[in-house]
Amino acid sequence: MNYEDKSNFIRVRALVAGRVQHVGYRYWAWEQAERLGLTGNVENLFDGRVEVVFQGKPENVNEMKERLRKGPPMAIVRQVIFYRERVDEEETCFEPVY
Q1: How far apart are CA 31 and CA 34, in angstroms?
Q2: Buried b (16+ CB within 10 A) or exposed e, 60-93
Q3: Per residue in 12-37, pLDDT tens?
Q4: Which residues contact 70 (CB under 8 A, 6 or more apart)?
Q5: 47 in helix, strand or coil?
Q6: Does the model's pTM come out above 0.85?
């Protein structure tokens, strides 16, 4: 169980559109979140977008937002929409959803 104080955490849901499936975006996003110490998940959506939900310290969340706008080398990110969400106190890791 993770007892880290999450009172200053923020949580964001990002919907990423463009050429973001079949280019390693999901694995890349997981790798970036791990490097930044974020928790959450990433999933390919049926409409061709990728959904990334992540939470952590504000400076790390903001850095993740910037990284998502660029994406991995093979991706072409056309649009990213961010939504604020309520922090999940129980979440302890970042994982891809298959």
Answers
A1: 5
A2: bbebbeebbeebbeebebeebeeeeeebeeebee
A3: 999 999 999 999 999 999 999 999 99
A4: 77
A5: coil
A6: yes
Residue with tokens 């959803």: 97
Edge-first strand order for the sheet with 50-56 is 76-85, 10-19, 50-56, 39-44, 94-97
For residue 32, list its beta bridge partners. Answer: none
Q: State the residue for tokens 């880290």.
A: 4
Give CA separation, 96 vs 9, 28, 43, 52, 76, in Å.
Answer: 21, 10, 6, 9, 20
Alpha-carbon separation of residue 21 from 5, 32, 46, 72, 91 (angstroms): 34, 17, 10, 11, 25
Low-confidence ranges of the chain (pLDDT < 50): 1-2
Q: How many residues does the chain have?
A: 98
Q: Which residues are identified as catalytic?
A: 26, 44
**What distance in Å separates the CA atoms of residue 55 and residue 38, rounded to the nearest whole number?**
6
